[in-house]
Model the fold of this input.
Amino acid sequence: MGSAHAFCIAEGGVEGMCLTAVCDINSERMAPIIKKYPNINTYTDYNALLDSDVADAVIIAVPHPLHSEIAIKALISGHHVMLEKPVDISVSKVKKLNQVAEKSGMVFGIMFNQRTNPLYKKAREIVKSGALGELKRTVWIITNWYRTQSYYNSGDWRATWSGEGGGVLLNQAPHNLDLWQWICGMPQSVTAFCDIAKYHNIEVEDDATLITRYKNGAVGTFITSTGEYPGTNRLEISGTLGKIVLENETLKWWKLKTDEREVCSTSTESFTKIDTEYTELTVDEPETAHRGILQNFTNAILNGEELIAKGEDGIFELILSNAAYLSSWSANKEIELPFDCDEFDKKLSELSKNAKKCINHPKSSSTTGYRERWKVQW
Amino acid sequence: MGSAHAFCIAEGGVEGMCLTAVCDINSERMAPIIKKYPNINTYTDYNALLDSDVADAVIIAVPHPLHSEIAIKALISGHHVMLEKPVDISVSKVKKLNQVAEKSGMVFGIMFNQRTNPLYKKAREIVKSGALGELKRTVWIITNWYRTQSYYNSGDWRATWSGEGGGVLLNQAPHNLDLWQWICGMPQSVTAFCDIAKYHNIEVEDDATLITRYKNGAVGTFITSTGEYPGTNRLEISGTLGKIVLENETLKWWKLKTDEREVCSTSTESFTKIDTEYTELTVDEPETAHRGILQNFTNAILNGEELIAKGEDGIFELILSNAAYLSSWSANKEIELPFDCDEFDKKLSELSKNAKKCINHPKSSSTTGYRERWKVQW
Done:
């Protein structure tokens, strides 16, 4: 992922941003970029990079458990930070990061590239504007994160408690969990059903169903997996003024002409129909994805443009997945938010210690550019 | 409902069946049919009807808690029985009914009229034939059972623990719960989140989410409500050989050319695509609905035709809804099947006793024919 960002910048993909240095503990991984851009500074220790005067901003793309530690050092040493998702693996660590970020005065963004998708932006606009009324229900079936065993074998940190801090909820679904809370807001509780190694030989979950409860009583359902083919990507949000469904690159919108709550209490008919205006919206602008997030980050630094995804927002989807793990570790108990971070950290630490040691899988090769599959898949 | 069946038969809607008698404790309700067919025998006590020699078969359409009691008497007295859904409100009562039915030698059917829908029949055929492979997941969002407060006010037995034995899971969703188990089979456990009086002034739930677990580890999600508009009717079933989705009167079928389990373990690619054959099936025969079930019942009596919905099958969907209530009464605990019937009956009895007495709402008017809305709504 880091290599893809490096090539994007080096090739002039982000106006106002230039690549001055790369850093990797494994120098072999830097070979492709050095070969093409021999004047780039290279480091194998990120502290050395931060101590130098080589960069105004850094992009952090390392195993998840190192995210907040490196981000904190980068912010304190006066660097703007773009952090890969998820923000880290434990909410307690992210609280510290957010405190540092707030005091630092630096620009802090997170790579929630799917926030640039026009349909999700439109869904958010509809919900936030009140056009759907009060939230009643939301259901997201997001099971098109299919992965083979070969994927999990491609890096020895993958799909381990110590290396990634979780499975599909920590690695693939963060985009969706973030979009979900970005569009519908945060719930008050999470109940989860996580299945460990259901479809793959891994340590963590590759299938999860979450039930969330919002302040007004609305219920959310979130279903994800890396073991289904072909998967589904369908988000439904129902409110007192109608319903939206996002599927197959289309946003369907049923807009009621009268609030359902009013119809329910005043209608003299047992079975009534409510006048509805139906609209279908398709994509009318490109999903700028990673490049869009990097451009926005650059504009934020240079011109104070508002961030599409503030780094501080990273905590929200992590609260959902941490709470989901806590629930599944506690016989599917409903976990009220905010949850007990100490309890979570203790259990995660136990799992990390007790986990079987990873086999030394071959490292994945460096990536020289963005992949289409990193955009929203419908 | 009883009136609608009576008119259907009296008008010759069912070949081989004729209407000889009607029975209602409220004689006013029989007025419309007597007016049109003055020679019909009438009763206000069903025992008198059963003791007479007036009928070979009876259709029972009374408040749910009376179903098994009347059905048992009808079977013992030598009548073939067509019972309205749900079969009763407690599984313990239905066990007794099924024992009696088995010994009776009479034809015993249940009004699961949605089993006549060609798309559900096709879905069942696909799953049962093994064409989807092993079940991985099933999700049914069936929230298009919209009801106004006026509906609930239309009968004082409606939406009460003592009168109906439950809410949307007992009255509306039985069709879907039955189809779900008919197509996918019965799960091994049920966890449920039921919301009482969320959208209406009633005693029971009008919103429910069930998580079911099947023998092979597959997970099911069932979401229903009478408070959303416009609702959704979307059934998804995912297996090792592909996926089917039923929505908008269409069955979409993605059929994999190679079993996903084989691809997962043998592919050397991390992100792979599996060759898929896609088919869309629409309705090619009518949904015969109630009339179809009655015709089949008649043919079963006269010619031994196999029943579309055996009365004994009524217990399955009731096991799901009873277990769902037990779960929601027990802090959303996972209820293993078979569940403890005594515990369920005790809790239901307490709720029935403690429930607030119903206001004497106006009775609903008699229905003179089948309604389109009783067919599957997409």
Q: What stands out?
A: The longest strand of chain A covers residues 205-213. Chain A touches chain B through 55 residues (CB under 8 Å). Confidence is low (pLDDT under 50) at residues 358-362 of chain A. DSSP finds 13 helices and 14 strands in chain A.
